[in-house]
Amino acid sequence: MTGRCLSMRQFRARGGNISQQEAKSLSDDQIRQIKLDIHDMPEYYGMPLSVIRENSTLNFDLFVKVSDQFKKVLTRSGAVTKNFLDALRSADHESVYTPYEQSGAALEYKESQLDSVIRDPEIEMDEKSEVIYSTATDIAEELFNSPITADNINRTRSVVRPMLESVLADYTTVESLIAVSSYDYYTYTHSVDVSIYSIGLGQALGLERNSMERLAEAAILHDVGKSQIDIAIVNKPGRLTSEEFEAMKMHPVFAYEILRHNGLSDMVILEAVRDHHEKLNGTGYPKGKPADQISQLARIIAIADIFNALTTRRSYKEALTTFDALKIMRDHMEGELDKELLKAFIYMMAGKHKGA
Ligand SMILES: [Fe+2]
Q1: Residue 240 DSSP symbol
Q2: In angstroms, what is the span from residue 96 Cα to ligand 1's centroid?
Q3: How far is the CA of 118 from the centre of ligand 1 (A)?
Q4: With 0-12 CB in 10 A as exposed, 13-18 as middle and 19+ as buried, what is 70?
């Protein structure tokens, strides 16, 4: 990230995450203006109040917003009581905040409360989706922005679990997660989005739980190899030169190596990651493998990957609509993608699959 670009966590800290759903009702000029305004806002990391759980202890200061001013309501180490939460609810506070420098502790807290949030029948699905999505993208962002370690890889693997559990419990969660997903492309939002679409497609196909878990983990980690590629190439606004593209083609191999060296030994996951740019007609990379050597999980991730890349906005290209993206994939990528899987994906995106 350079210049005026904000990281997703900073962007969200300023209340600026534009979702796919919101983007539909805003013009490009309005979106640009929101982004400019957000640069001038103080940095506070916001969370829905529902994330703060009764009888828990916070390792960060808690603030609420009162007429555009942040007011401290609980000092770090303070216990969260029922009375405290009731008071915030009755004052109609839907969000709580912590200063950006304490957002690491807030993220750890949010991560630890995720299961309890998901199981709470009082919390609406859209709010749960927002909590799941923001936690997953914040953790993926840390993975890409810090030195890669076994710990942060495991943390990223774990964060797909709540996502998977929610979809397995109620298939319509996929739609809700897609609605809150990011309209702009960042490597870490892309990683989470690819897991959402992969989980959706896997579930539509009726994959077994074990395969679903591997699929979700491979999907969120599929681009981790980009951390080894020159950042100027990864973030280049526009077409890569053939030399740059050759360098970029190494990222699936790097991902395979990074994961293996950090203790991930499941070959099904490793191969799905390494083969996500292989094409059925043998024109993909890194190996140019023929169809019979490309696993079903790699084929699913390839579809989710391309679809999300087409439907998100980058500095040099607009986002395509779902319809246009699917049309391109169907009409212009024949021979590259698995036809049956693509058909199932198109059905899923048309809302024709309502759960296995
Ligand atoms: Fe990739």
Answers
A1: P
A2: 36
A3: 30
A4: middle
Instruction: Give the Å distance between the CA of 165 and the centre of ligand 1.
Output: 25
How many angstroms separate the alpha carbon of residue 224 from the centre of ligand 1? 8
The letter for the amino acid at 217 is E
Q: 187-204 pLDDT, tens per residue?
A: 899 999 999 999 999 999
Which domains does the chain carry? 124-349 (1.10.3210.10)
Give the pLDDT mean for 20-40.
70
Distance CA 68, CA 61 (A): 18
User: By C-alpha distance, which of 104, 130, 103, 99 is closest to 117?
Assistant: 130
CA of 251 to the centre of ligand 1 (A): 7
In the predicted structure, residue 12 carries a pLDDT above the cut 70? no
- Alpha carbon of 279 to ligand 1 centroid (Å): 13
Distance (angstroms) between ligand 1 centre and the Cα of 153 equals 17
- CA 340 from chain centre, in angstroms, equals 25
pTM for this predicted structure? 0.87
Alpha-carbon gap, residue 331 to 278, rounded angstroms? 18
Tokens standing for residue 340: 């049956």
Distance 168 CA to ligand 1 centre (A): 26
Residues 6+ apart with CB under 8 A from 351: 175
State the distance from the centre of ligand 1 to the C-alpha of 112, rounded, in angstroms.
29
